[in-house]
Design a protein that fits this description.
The protein has 146 residues and is of the alpha+beta class. 10% of the residues are buried. Strand 3, helix 3 and strand 4 form a beta-alpha-beta unit. The protein starts with a strand and ends with a helix. It has a four-stranded mixed β-sheet with strand order 3-4-6-5. The protein has a domain of 85 residues: Translation Initiation Factor IF3 (2-Layer Sandwich), CATH 3.30.110. It comes from Caryophanon latum. Homodimer. Interacts with FtsZ. Its main location: cytoplasm.
């Protein structure tokens, strides 16, 4: 574009350029996808605990707790609500309070779809829903008296 400006008796022509962003052409391609078919049995397989933790970006935690009174059971429930497994040692709790603690924890794991298992004399493992416990310790507990 040209403009005429008058300065005194002279006419000055200036080229005025309008700035426009350059137009860039890109080829748009559809992403290639592979169709993977798996047998139904493999698709429903259980993942390792390590792979689940790695996919979430954090490590799986197990908390060890040794309560002395019933009032500490809420802290154990908070660990379970935070999706941490808890090993509870009830050796230092009086017999009547042990039963109350186990009842409370049984209700807690029920609400979070978890599990509670006896793993030793007055020792219990409470797990959230995404933890699967396997092994033969349950069979041994039934055979021995603690």
């Amino acid at each position: 574009m040209k403009r005429n400006n008058k300065k005194g008796d002279q006419q000055v022509q200036q080229n005025v350029e309008t700035t426009q962003p350059p137009i860039v052409q890109q080829d748009i391609q559809k992403p290639m996808s592979k169709e993977v078919t798996q047998p139904m049995e493999q698709a429903k397989s259980i993942l390792n605990l390590q792979s689940v933790a790695a996919s979430k970006g954090g490590a799986t935690q197990v908390t060890l707790v040794e309560p002395r009174v019933y009032a500490e059971v809420r802290d154990i429930a908070d660990h379970l609500k935070s999706r941490r497994s808890v090993i509870v040692n009830l050796h230092r709790v009086e017999h009547d309070q042990k039963k109350r603690i186990i009842d409370f924890l049984s209700g807690t794991v029920y609400v979070i779809s978890g599990d509670i298992q006896r793993v030793g004399a007055d020792i219990y493992l409470c797990t959230p829903a995404d933890v699967e416990v396997t092994g033969e310790i349950s069979t041994l507990l039934n055979m021995e008296e603690f």
